[in-house]
Specification:
Layout: E1 10-17, E2 20-27, H1 28-39, H2 49-59, H3 61-67, E3 70-71, E4 78-80, E5 89-95, E6 98-105
Antiparallel strand pairs: 1-2, 1-3, 1-4, 2-6, 5-6
């Protein structure tokens, strides 16, 4: 029987990896804590898009640097709770004592 995983809310970012687009999913609670810690809110509609991009790029920096990928500025982050089945990679890292839990897939 298929194992059922609980649906977990997250934020989806688009990255460019060697001219191919991929997706990085960050657990919502990680992303909210990161935004609130930096600018006091995680409300996307209240955050300037360029500021949001900068915050995301900083939080994702270890992942981007390790993979030689870039964050797509013209693809704003979106909320996402249903992930595709072909999950590629679970990764954890820490920036400024904030822990990030992510999943990467194409």
């Amino acid at each position: 029987s298929m194992q059922q995983y609980p649906v977990q809310q997250g934020t989806l970012f688009t990255i460019n990896y060697h001219n191919e687009l991929g997706r990085v999913w960050i657990a919502e609670e990680c992303w909210q804590r990161w935004c609130e810690g930096l600018i006091g809110t995680a409300n996307r509609s209240a955050i300037d898009p360029e500021l949001l991009y900068g915050i995301a790029e900083w939080g994702l920096a270890p992942l981007l640097q390790a993979s030689d990928a870039t964050l797509c500025q013209n693809e704003p982050p979106t909320s996402c709770s249903n992930l595709p089945h072909q999950l590629a990679l679970h990764i954890k890292w820490t920036v400024e004592e904030h822990e990030f839990h992510s999943i990467i897939f194409t």
